[in-house]
Write a structure and sequence with these properties.
By secondary structure, the protein is α/β, with parallel strands linked by helices. The protein has a single domain, classed as Rossmann fold (3-Layer(aba) Sandwich). The termini are far apart. It binds NADP nicotinamide-adenine-dinucleotide phosphate.
Length: about 240
Amino acid sequence: MPQRLKGKVALVTGASRGIGRAIAVALGAEGATVVLSGRSVPDLKTTSQQVSAAGGAAEVVPAELEDEASIRNLVAETNRRCGRLDILVNNAGITHSAPLAETTTEDLDRCWAINARAPFILCRETLPLLKQAERGYIVNIASVVSVKGYPLQSAYTASKHALRGMSMSLAEELRGSNVRVHVICPGGVDTELVSRVRPDIEKADLIGPEEIAELVVYLVTHQGNAVLDELHVRRATSSPWFVS
Ligand SMILES: NC(=O)c1ccc[n+]([C@@H]2O[C@H](COP(=O)([O-])OP(=O)(O)OC[C@H]3O[C@@H](n4cnc5c(N)ncnc54)[C@H](OP(=O)(O)O)[C@@H]3O)[C@@H](O)[C@H]2O)c1
């Protein structure tokens, strides 16, 4: 099978583990050069080895997404090393699980900074590069809580609603241009994050991170005029999305 992303450059945040690592490896398997970002350099290096083993190339660019200067440096470094950008995957995220009354302003600010503010800044700072691509893609990894409300997750839910809202607006703003904006809203995926907030879900019932990665690859390789703006992805044992 020919590699469909040969010559393309993708930037994946939260690539040090979990869903981001799976996305990076899947894009690498299609021949992309993947800029891997996160804070843990040893973990990013592990992802880098996996991307190379899959047939792609990797550049490790650590960043602290709470810090705008660090985000700007990530984009500048991507441009300096790769000279182009075709795909931005805003995947990094944190959760916070507590009753609203026990959620501090700092907890809220941290969720907001990483889950909504950083993707906003990354979209803004990468758009000039994405507009130069033949086709540019922004894939925002939102959540089931971008659409629904789960108890004990008010800060996380608010930030993920914001991410989805920003994506809706930007998708409309960029309609007809070469840049498409996609949102993926997964339910429980088998990562460290879900094991912290939903230890009640059996591991065997969770979605595999590589299943989310497959969807990203589909979105950024699909040729033609059909566009899937938003993907709602649930665990097979959970209620279908159209049942409220
Ligand atoms: N797992 C699920 O069930 C699930 C469901 C729906 C949506 N999601 C979403 O999917 C995305 C990935 O989640 P995951 O389950 O793979 O989580 P995870 O295993 O906890 O990984 C989170 C990633 O985000 C990075 N990150 C966290 N804080 C950061 C910061 N301040 N600066 C830079 N990077 C930071 C982490 O890297 P470092 O620690 O190296 O910085 C890590 O690579 C998140 O947006 C999450 O909300 C997950």
